[in-house]
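Case study 2.
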Amino acid sequence: MKNIIIKDGRNHRVISGNAISLLDTLPASIFELDYGQETGFSLNETDSPFKNSEKLYGDAEAITERVLSAFDIVEGNLGVLFSGPKGLGKSLTVRNICKGALKKGLPVILIKKHFEDITAFVETINQSVAVVFDEFEKIYPDRNRADRDDLEGQDSLLNLFDSSLKCKKLFLLTVNDTHNLSDYLLNRPGRLHYHFRMNRLSIDEITEYCKDRLDRERHGLIRDILSLGARIPDFSYDMLRSIVFELNTRGCGLPEARKVLNIEAKTRSPFDYTVYFKSGKTENGFDYIDTGDSRHGLNWYGKANGERDGAAANMLEARWTGDADGSLSLDGKHVHWTQREKKGTDRVEKIVFVPAKGGFLASENDWD
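Prediction:
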């Protein structure tokens, strides 16, 4: 058995073994970063995070193509942020990007725990690599928002994300809540060029998943699953997977499955809504709505007079419209004017609620 002695300044490391190779560059493999008090930083080859070949839904393939093609073009680093609640496909999309990076010959380095002075180590890698921080805000807290003075915070990594390294790097970060990110990372495309927000599953994603996973004879339940998905603000693949499992294995209906599953539909969710009147007039608004509320107050500003109008809606009666946007429709008979004098004027025909991607108005024209 031969020894290899590595001299780094005054430090000498002795490595014993017959399976030793001296490489000029890292191979296109997956590595987990580790650190030892005596050995310093090391990269341990692994493939476990990429064994899952689960089918991807939604925009994952389009996002992968966009990120990798941009990285081919840019001269400096490319930072990519994925945000949103757990179970919406952030990590799966990142893994898909990493698979594409491997095909292009880029090594992938996984950062799964907190390390001090990681910037200095990454700067020593004189080749392009992809660096992944999964649940970034947990392993590198924002020192301004977390009482963790014992750890280097997010601001210590700003130079790492800047486009100043010898060989450009692809940085992929996932976070569950952007409120836990440093102000020096959000709205800074020079550091994190892309920000993909994953706030809810689309109706198309839910439909495709159900057609793939739900027993064919139970496809008639897809409409009910879509309606449930539109009602829950953070409806996730975890929820969808558990619903499909119960329906397939127990042969039950959705109401029975909901009774036993750890899924709560009575939560406030952002909706854009349009009020359709018998006269043909329409009004638009936005609100956080509890779809299990028997009396929810809606308010909007009239387009013609700019006055604040409102009605009370029984959201329990809302039904999925069948449209691809996952909208819910409420018949006018379940809408009541909050002001008695309005009751005899133009009647509401229906209100259509469309789940909003984020917690803000979908269009500035809503208030024209």
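The longest helix spans residues 60-73.
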